[in-house]
Specification:
Helices cover 59% and strands 3% of the residues. The protein is an all-alpha fold. Helix 8 packs antiparallel against helix 13 and helix 9 packs antiparallel against helix 10. The chain contains 16 helices and 3 strands. The chain has a 3-stranded antiparallel beta sheet. It is globular. The chain has 2 domains: 228 residues, Orthogonal Bundle (Citrate Synthase, domain 1), CATH 1.10.580.10; 97 residues, Cytochrome P450-Terp, domain 2 (Cytochrome p450-Terp, domain 2, Orthogonal Bundle), CATH 1.10.230.10. The structure holds acetyl coenzyme *A and oxaloacetate ion. Oxaloacetate ion binds next to loops. It comes from Mycetocola zhadangensis. Pfam families: Citrate_synt. One of its GO terms (biological process) is tricarboxylic acid cycle. One of its GO terms (molecular function) is citrate synthase activity. This is Citrate synthase.
Length: 369
Amino acid sequence: MTDTDIKKGLAGVVVDYTAVSKVNPETNSLLYRGYPVQELAANCSFEQVAYLLWRGELPTDAALQEFEDVERGQRALDDNVKAVVDLIPMTAHPMDVLRTAVSAIGATDPEAELATEESSLNKAARLYAQIPAIVAYDQRRRRGEDLVPPRDDLGYSANFLYMTFGEVPADEVVEAFNVSIILYAEHSFNASTFTARVITSTLSDLYSAVVGGIGALKGALHGGANEAVMHTFDEIGTADKAEAWLEQALAEKRKIMGFGHRVYKNGDSRVPTMKAALEKLVTYYNRPDTLELYNSLEEAMVSRKNIKPNLDYPSGPAYNLMGFDTLTFTPLFVAARVVGWTAHIMEQAASNALIRPLSEYNGPDERHL
Ligand SMILES: CC(=O)SCCNC(=O)CCNC(=O)[C@H](O)C(C)(C)COP(=O)(O)OP(=O)(O)OC[C@H]1O[C@@H](n2cnc3c(N)ncnc32)[C@H](O)[C@@H]1OP(=O)(O)O
Ligand SMILES: O=C([O-])CC(=O)C(=O)O
């Protein structure tokens, strides 16, 4: 075995089939169950996209109504889950709070071990309905604010924002949020989805797989990058300082968060759609400084390294303009990606093989005491 036989990071390795989404770096496209994600973001609600990812087809009007009723019926924060969240110190990262809360939901579900298709869909829907309440409440308690109960006359995105901020924002903001979570919902065998599939492959339960996915998403090389982008923006300050900041950061061999991708080497298919949403927010909030800084860092990075932004680059400043705390950004990614994870968990369970690769030993030769 040579070094070239070892696929460090599994780069370029195809490990299974999936019918959930298709990432095509050659055409710079992303399809959810065959539909271009840009078309879904422009025309659909997050609820429609969740239904599509789980069931393979877009809902009829009647099916959508029923599906929305199920989410609205479960969106209030469960008392037991709230009690668990309240026990966690504010020093914990919100991703740790969310990971613990999801674990508590699993531990209190008497059907946690049941893995029929219907039961898995019910569990996935419960998490999808409950996670916004956890994320919203955690941000509020950190600000010293009380819990805002949900409103069942609002769609998923408007209600999420309402539970977080205590008011329904303008349509422009709800729309940009809806676009962001549709773009974040699914991306084939990324690290967190693969983690969820590995856990599922051992015949573990859906909640354990989602908890593992949250752990994998937290890292700065994956979902944690949207938070890290905002730290970068804060560090740079203004657009005129971006180039010098980048030179210094590259000289220190730092990774520039929100840039680069394992699969897309020529730009992330989702960035133009999310950048357009960011531009609308910049107009709505009258914050041209945000776009100037965005553009100057991107231009400097492309001209210096020819590395393009990934989805976390426009999402970070978009969530900042909406008023979310920086620490809440990656939990927002979880709220969206739980749909993709659970679609993959069900796909893995339906056609399972234990995931267990090999390694090449490079420790000491056999020796004896
Ligand atoms: C939604 C998402 O999860 S998208 C990903 C979010 N993550 C980030 O934004 C973190 C920053 N980006 C990165 O660290 C990387 O681009 C990754 C981890 C996303 C992809 O990494 P890989 O596919 O392993 O690319 P790899 O690390 O081989 O990069 C190739 C070269 O580009 C460099 N490079 C890649 N991305 C960056 C970056 N963001 N900043 C600086 N250099 C970079 C690497 O250092 C490497 O240089 P070298 O050949 O001189 O060693
Ligand atoms: O696909 C990846 O490796 C990371 C990513 O963009 C995502 O999970 O959305």
